[in-house]
Design a protein that fits this description.
It is a single chain. This protein is 25% helix and 30% strand. It has 262 residues and is α+β, with helices and mostly antiparallel strands. The chain has a single domain, classed as Fumarylacetoacetate hydrolase, domain 2. Strands 3, 4, 5, 7, 8, 9, 12 and 13 form an 8-stranded mixed beta sheet that branches. Strands 6-15-14-10-11 form a 5-stranded mixed beta sheet, with no helix packed on it. A two-stranded antiparallel ribbon has the order 1-2. The termini are far apart. The structure holds 2-oxoadipic acid and magnesium ion. The site of 2-oxoadipic acid has 14 residues, from helix 4 and strand 8. This is 2-oxo-3-hexenedioate decarboxylase. Pfam families: FAA_hydrolase (PF01557). Keywords: Lyase.
Length: 262
């Protein structure tokens, strides 16, 4: 697969291979978008090629994640655009499960809200009736791990890198609670609160993240399906995942989800 970004022909599959190998070896690589001359659209094509490599290994696409839907996250990484990425079954850690930080480059964790999707409208239409679109809601933790040196990237770089997706855990699913747009969120490390926020930090209302996801993924021909998981984006900045740490995210009225680092 090639594009003519700046007159040069760029092999998008080759860029995907570099990112995939960096993730597999847990060794950071330099940013590649500027050198390769790829824009955001080409970066989403790299992301799709990265998913193809996972599917070829037998992984299954189970949903989508949003990224940079809160000011705290945008400020942390210096990229001011909402992005999205793909989630596979291999990234899913059971609630209370263990992850090995040594399999990642510089893993960070962040508290999120997850939706279990139901009937979604066509990509060009607003989600409208959220109760039709979403079967259940849960507290979630995302473990992100940029494949780039120093966790530093441009917008096309982070898009190509599947929005830094690495692992995620989801707590117990439950009915959509009243006041979803303003629930308190805590991130705890070893029982100590290290970040506090609100679901309001996620585009003013995490439901808006679903609208954005339907729209943005739709632009690239991806239509969300019933049964998929959707991560609305972190409500606070992410914190480094240290070996041995016990991580817990608590969302008011939704309960908690946890994972442990080996
Ligand atoms: C990009 C991914 C952002 C979120 O929830 O905002 C993200 C990054 O911070 O590396 O997952
Ligand atoms: Mg996230």
């Amino acid at each position: 697969m090639t594009v003519d970004g700046s007159g040069e022909r760029v092999d998008l599959a080759e860029l995907a291979a570099r990112l995939d190998e960096a993730a597999g070896a847990a060794i950071a690589i330099p940013q590649l978008a500027a050198v390769a001359g790829i824009d955001v659209d080409a970066a989403y094509a790299v992301q799709a090629a990265l998913l193809d490599r996972r599917l070829a290994r037998g992984e299954r696409l189970v949903g989508l994640k949003m990224g940079l839907t809160s000011r705290a996250k945008m400020a942390q990484v210096g990229v001011e655009e909402v992005i999205w990425g793909r989630l596979t079954d291999a990234m899913w850690v059971p609630d209370g499960g263990t992850v090995d930080p040594g399999l990642h480059i510089h893993p960070r964790v962040e508290p999120e809200v997850a939706f279990l999707l139901d009937r979604l409208p066509a990509p060009r239409e607003p989600v409208g009736d959220f109760t039709d679109a979403v079967r259940a809601v849960a507290p979630a933790l995302e473990l992100i791990d940029s494949r780039y040196t120093n966790f530093t990237f441009s917008l096309p770089d982070v898009v190509a890198d599947n929005a830094s997706a690495a692992r995620f855990a989801i707590g117990a699913w439950q009915p959509v609670p009243a006041g979803l747009e303003n629930l308190g969120v805590l991130l705890e490390v070893d029982g100590r609160v290290v970040q506090t926020g609100s679901t309001a930090a996620i585009l003013g209302d995490p439901r808006r993240a679903l609208d954005e996801g339907v729209r943005l993924a739709g632009r690239h021909g991806v239509r969300m399906r019933a049964g998929w998981v959707f991560l609305a984006g972190a409500a606070t900045a992410a914190v480094p995942l240290r070996p041995g740490a016990h991580i817990r995210a608590v969302v008011e009225r939704l309960g908690a989800v946890s994972l442990r680092a080996e």
